[in-house]
Amino acid sequence: MAKLTAFARGIAGTVFRPGDPKYEKRREVYAAKFAAHPALIVQPANIQDIQTSLNFANSNHLPLAIRCGGHSYAGYSTCEGGLVLDMSSFRSMTIAADKSRVRLGGGMLCGAVEIETAKAGLATVLGQCPSVGVGGFLLGGGVGPLMSKYGLGCDNILGAELVLADGHQVKANEDENPDLYWAIRGGGGNFGIVTAFDVTLHPVSNVFAGIITLESADPRTFLRAFRDFLPTAPDELTLIALMSAEPKHKPQIDIQVCYVGESAEGEKALAPLRHHSAVVHDTVKSRPYLELEQMVPADIPPSYDEHCSGFFREFDDTRIEVLADAFLSAPCRVDCFLIHLHGAVTRVPVAATAFPLRRDGIGCDVAAYWKPPDGQQAASRWIEALKTKLPVDEDGNYVNVMEREGENGVRRAYGANYMRLQHIKARYDPHNLFSLNQNIRPAG
Ligand SMILES: Cc1cc2nc3c(=O)[nH]c(=O)nc-3n(C[C@H](O)[C@H](O)[C@H](O)COP(=O)(O)OP(=O)(O)OC[C@H]3O[C@@H](n4cnc5c(N)ncnc54)[C@H](O)[C@@H]3O)c2cc1C
Fold this sequence. Notes:
The protein is an alpha+beta fold. The chain has three domains: 2-89, Uridine Diphospho-n-acetylenolpyruvylglucosamine Reductase, domain 2; 93-203, 2-Layer Sandwich (Uridine Diphospho-n-acetylenolpyruvylglucosamine Reductase, domain 3); 206-404, Vanillyl-alcohol Oxidase, Chain A, domain 3 (3-Layer(aba) Sandwich). 29% of the residues lie in helices and 24% in strands. It is built from 14 helices and 19 strands. Helix 8 (219-229) runs antiparallel to helix 11 (317-328). The chain is globular. The two termini are 36 Å apart. The relative contact order is 0.13. It binds flavin-adenine dinucleotide. Flavin-adenine dinucleotide is lined by residues 30, 66-73, 76-77, 87, 106, 127-129, 132-133, 135-137, 139-140, 142-144, 188-189, 193-194, 300, 400-401, 437.
């Protein structure tokens, strides 16, 4: 106790401890089932606070969790009895004079970045939820409506500044620590605390975009419509579909489309999908990109859910059957993101960055939502049954949508890149101080 008090006194930023008036609010994370009681939540004001916190966690053998937006599905941005390093004071952002890049503090949230870049007619590749942190988003990969044209969020990282496990400050870019630069583009929070990212900006103002909703008593109808359309999608077009179902409601799919280019070309590209007989709603039009990004509310409350995820190169009839059958027998509200990976995302060679999914295909992320005290069992049973039936590719998964799947799950997710990641981990974090994440075990 005296140690904690002395540590807190040495921090220039803010420290929240159990019993403090703001502690209960500060310990909340998106994944409500993992909400824990950290001994300390530290909001560092500067690099020295980060170094002091790493040293304290290390020398007292405290679990250490890093938080940016707090949206980890696996609840890795909190820990029981440990130290949470909450990066929310690192929220500065500077657009370069030539507008080619922006420097983002390691605690920025995506929504705030998009508002500021939009004022300059610019955007970088971010996701669909304003309260997701750039930290987790960029480090794990980063899928969003601009990716098929401009690459993943991580493909747009030009460089970063980090504090390593031993307290050293380093830069990672093409010229300085290129191995670390390779690893942070997809390798998650395994290598150090990122205090700043430099990312590429693109001239984006209006896009041809919106949501196309298809409804049917049988989800096979709209899943096939979605699948059959995908091969025709040009690089300018990103599609992220959300299929949802709940007992006593007709299943539906909301396909978020974003065409970055001339509206007339977008109209042409989307026509086959928009004219499908199952379409019940269509909001696609020319609109400011920011408007599309703000369709998801900024304030997403903590949620109780169970997840499974995977990648399929072929969205074949077997997978459609399995998903459709599962969604027709869902015991609770369920949904499934189907993320179309193609274009600029899959033209990057798999060995060029740590991010493993560089083949055309679908990233799939299924969630079953429940309410305490007793909804978890049914949701979990449904997810487990789906996992046994849904054939996902053996290697490759998107770590940002994985739950806690252990060493084998992480190894499978990174596939061919895992071994190289292990060697880089051994160099920068040999004792695995940064272990609360989709963890890469240090080599040796
Ligand atoms: C509602 C919702 C919407 C989402 N939408 C999208 C989407 O559109 N596209 C997409 O790709 N993903 C999306 N995701 C998934 C999201 O990318 C991941 O959950 C991501 O990890 C969240 O980042 P965060 O900073 O908010 O989370 P946190 O829980 O704060 O961080 C997650 C992990 O990232 C690491 N980390 C974060 N910041 C730093 C830092 N500064 N330095 C070092 N390590 C750090 C840590 O290991 C931490 O455990 C969504 C998730 C939710 C819950």
